[in-house]
Design brief:
globular
């Protein structure tokens, strides 16, 4: 499966904040495997996880969900 804009933004934001996948998975209480799948575009996070990611990275859910707002 090819990467989508959500997965590209998740990788970009994680690296901008200086986090490893392990650190983000620990903060959000999800498996590193799940986070990896989100970043590879193989799985879409639940809305609760999207909200947690948005708070962690200090962006809006709209931004994560590929809106140009």
């Amino acid at each position: 499966m090819t990467k989508n804009l959500l997965s590209i933004r998740l990788i970009y934001l994680r690296k901008q904040k200086g986090y490893t996948q392990y650190e983000v998975s620990e903060i959000l209480n999800i498996s590193r495997s799940a986070l990896s799948k989100y970043e590879k575009g193989r799985r879409i996070p639940k809305i609760e996880t999207i909200m947690q990611l948005a708070r962690l990275y200090d962006v809006s859910c709209d931004y994560l969900l590929c809106s140009d707002i």
